[in-house]
Specification:
single chain, 58 residues, mainly alpha, 2 helices, 43% helix, elongated
Length: 58
């Protein structure tokens, strides 16, 4: 087995103190995801119910 060097966790220059202050304005202002995982699960379930109903009608 070949030993490869471990990749760096963060690329150089990505320390929060080193970033351009103008880029901080572009960050999200909340830690919440853009779409709730429960919303995605609910939409998938509703799509499944819709397919079940349509297939039962055919």
């Amino acid at each position: 087995m070949t030993d490869y060097p471990q990749p760096m966790a963060d690329p150089p220059g990505t320390d929060p103190d080193d970033r351009d202050p103008r880029e901080q304005d572009l960050e999200r202002r909340s830690d919440a995801p853009a779409i709730s995982p429960w919303l995605v699960i609910g939409l998938i379930l509703m799509l499944g119910v819709l397919v079940y109903i349509v297939s039962a009608m055919l």
